From TrEMBL:
Entry protein name: Methyltranfer_dom domain-containing protein
Species per Swiss-Prot/TrEMBL record: Caenorhabditis tropicalis
Ranges where the Methyltransferase domain occurs: 163-274
Top-rank taxon: Eukaryota
Ranges for domain S-adenosylmethionine-dependent methyltransferase Rv2258c-like winged HTH: 17-88
Short name of any one Pfam family annotated for the protein: Methyltransf_31
Length: 353
């Protein structure tokens, strides 16, 4: 166990070094000016990236000892060809390493939540950098898959209805990455993004089409998902929740509101972290990734979803059984569960009113 704990500590250090390299574009700088045939000294990397040489040298030393960068006897560095894409493109593992530091930032506050006499949970605002990284994460996982993969997976003629023109609500839209993609691809439909976080909605309202023009079929609203405008009753053909259900303190109130606002022939589609609702089964199914899933829930999703006396405290690993039970209680009795291999670690729930 001592060796295992040591290895965990080493991995933690390396993960943070990867985070630094990604945030400061050090990997890209190194890839642009070096190769196995032409390795470079840290001063060249620092100059290219606009950083201090001494810090960059220690960063290079750390990652070379962790077998992430290559080094020779002259202490010159390069990225192996087979590792270049993984370290220089916005991919799931790289962004996830970068995202971890944002949920670790309020660790002392989280420790107090564990104590019996401590606070119920944490306000979303204490994760000050999380929203920005979450949107980058959403961009990486959504940009290439929302239109060609997710929309057809929802079925029920939704793709054709979106093309003809329907009314769509994105609940917990954050900065609007997903709903923007949909609004641009389906100009005949009208889209509304709703989120309780004013900062996120402010950012969403600045979104433009790919050609720089303004949207005419997309609007955003600051509102509580558990208390949406009364005028929304029976008014949406499609309601979407992209990973926003489990973070809520009262996801049951949210889903009851979703049931109210979707039309009688409407569709509700919810993406969420996949799990079985049983930790033993999850460990056997996902292996070491199960620890990552539960750890992410412990560090962020559980505390923000527990921050009131009446919170349901779901956490992101509430799993299929608990999720379907809650949806049933909120009036959705025919819930279809669809795998989403294009969204790593997630699953899609599709239901009708």
């Amino acid at each position: 166990m001592q060796d295992r704990l040591t290895n965990l500590a080493i991995s933690n250090v390396l993960s943070n070094a990867v985070n630094i390299g990604n945030r400061l574009h050090l990997f890209k700088a190194l890839a642009e000016i070096s190769s196995e045939e032409n390795p470079v000294l840290p001063e060249k990397i620092a100059e290219r990236a606009g950083c201090k040489e001494r810090y960059v040298r220690e960063w290079c030393n750390t990652l070379a000892c962790g077998n992430i960068l290559e080094v020779n006897e002259k202490e010159e560095f390069w990225i192996a060809n087979e590792n270049s894409e993984a370290l220089t493109t916005e991919n799931f593992p790289l962004v996830f390493n970068t995202m971890l530091s944002t949920v670790l930032k309020p660790i002392q506050n989280l420790i107090e939540c564990f104590r019996k006499d401590g606070p119920y949970g944490l306000d979303y605002n204490v994760y000050s950098d999380f929203e920005e990284m979450q949107q980058k994460f959403a961009k990486v996982t959504s940009e290439n898959h929302i239109i060609p993969s997710l929309v057809p997976a929802i079925g029920n003629g939704i793709q054709e209805r979106l093309q003809s023109g329907i009314r769509v609500l994105d609940v917990g839209c954050g900065s609007g990455i997903q709903v923007k993609l949909l609004a641009e691809h389906f100009p005949n439909s009208h889209f509304i993004g709703l989120d309780i976080t004013e900062k996120a909605i402010e950012a969403a309202r600045l979104l433009k089409k790919s050609d720089g023009s303004d949207f005419e079929n997309l609007e955003f609203l600051v509102a509580d998902a558990g208390d949406m405008p009364k005028s929304y009753t029976d008014s949406f053909d499609l309601v979407l929740l992209f990973g926003s259900c489990h973070d809520q303190m009262r996801p049951d109130l949210c889903m009851k509101e979703v049931h109210r606002v979707v039309k009688s022939d409407g569709i509700v589609a919810v993406t969420d972290v996949d799990g079985s609702s049983n930790v033993y089964t999850d460990r056997e199914t996902y292996g070491k990734m199960a620890a990552m899933k539960y750890g992410g829930s412990m560090l962020h999703c559980l505390p923000v979803g527990s921050n009131s006396p009446d919170a349901l405290c779901c956490g992101s690993m509430w799993g299929r059984r608990r999720a379907v039970e809650l949806m049933n209680k909120c009036g959705f009795f025919d819930v279809e569960i669809i795998p989403t291999d294009y969204f790593p670690g997630s699953v899609l729930y599709v239901m009708k009113k």
